[in-house]
Amino acid sequence: MKVTGIVLAGGASSRMGTDKSQLRLDGMTVLERIAGEVRKAANRVIVTGSKGGSLPFGLEAVPDQYPGQGPLAGLHAGLKETRTEWSILCACDMPLVNAETMLALLTLADEPWNAVIPVIGGRKQPLLAAYHHRVLPGLEERLQAGRLRMQDWLDTISAVYVDGEQLAASGSRAADKVFFNMNEPEDYRRVTGWLREEASLKNHDC
Ligand SMILES: Nc1nc2c(ncn2[C@@H]2O[C@H](COP(=O)(O)OP(=O)(O)OP(=O)(O)O)[C@@H](O)[C@H]2O)c(=O)[nH]1
């Protein structure tokens, strides 16, 4: 199945105080890191809402048609551009995502569902999820009406929900870390610490 990757890179990053997509981890930007994983699961990668500058790896930038309207607007911009039935959406502030989790979600991407949404620790995670192109008209209506809450929109689409146990076989990282999202400087420091620990465990194994 051909799949498009849509990376959300818009928003104000106001809590972080600096563009989250450009934070550096392990010698690369968070956007480069995430796009590298999305690329393994998708045939084409689109970045929506990025704040200018050239994108790495020849990623395609697509501007939001509803600027400043949040993640739903970023998903909308990506889906408008896609030619595939299914897309995998990934926020650029989830630095520990892996392709295995995306591929696991895509195994459920089929009739009668229009979305495959993880639920981790009891919380829906629509910003690392799979969406069918069919959701686009309803999404457009909501944006036109200024109804921007993602959680409300989810109630209007036929989605299958997948818990952490079902995704547990996907890669080496625990689901709570895969879905960890960075909002504040403290979150960035935590991720830096986890990566350092992972690297030192790997060194011990060698
Ligand atoms: N394309 C696009 N992406 C967005 C938009 N708003 C937020 N995002 C992305 O959606 C994800 C979650 O964003 P939030 O943490 O809710 O908002 P934020 O603007 O990044 O951060 P705050 O200003 O601190 O709330 C991140 O990957 C953002 O880059 C938008 O208007 N357009």
TrEMBL record:
Q: What GO MF annotations does this protein's record show?
A: nucleotidyltransferase activity
**Residues forming coiled coils:** none
**Origin superkingdom:** Bacteria
Residues binding Mg(2+) = D93
Q: Which reaction does it catalyse?
A: Mo-molybdopterin + GTP + H(+) = Mo-molybdopterin guanine dinucleotide + diphosphate
Does the keyword section mention Endoplasmic reticulum?
A: no
Q: Which subcellular locations apply to this protein? A: Cytoplasm
* Cofactor(s) listed: Mg(2+)
- EC number(s) for this protein? 2.7.7.77
Q: Which UniProt keywords apply?
A: Cytoplasm, GTP-binding, Magnesium, Metal-binding, Molybdenum cofactor biosynthesis, Nucleotide-binding, Nucleotidyltransferase, Transferase
Binding residues for GTP: L8, A9, G10, K20, D64, D93
Gene3D superfamilies referenced in this protein's UniProt entry, alphabetically = Spore Coat Polysaccharide Biosynthesis Protein SpsA, Chain A
Q: What residues form the membrane-spanning segments? A: none
Similarity remark: Belongs to the MobA family.
What is written about domains in the entry's comments? The N-terminal domain determines nucleotide recognition and specific binding, while the C-terminal domain determines the specific binding to the target protein.
Q: What does this protein do?
A: Transfers a GMP moiety from GTP to Mo-molybdopterin (Mo-MPT) cofactor (Moco or molybdenum cofactor) to form Mo-molybdopterin guanine dinucleotide (Mo-MGD) cofactor.
Q: What is this protein called?
A: Probable molybdenum cofactor guanylyltransferase
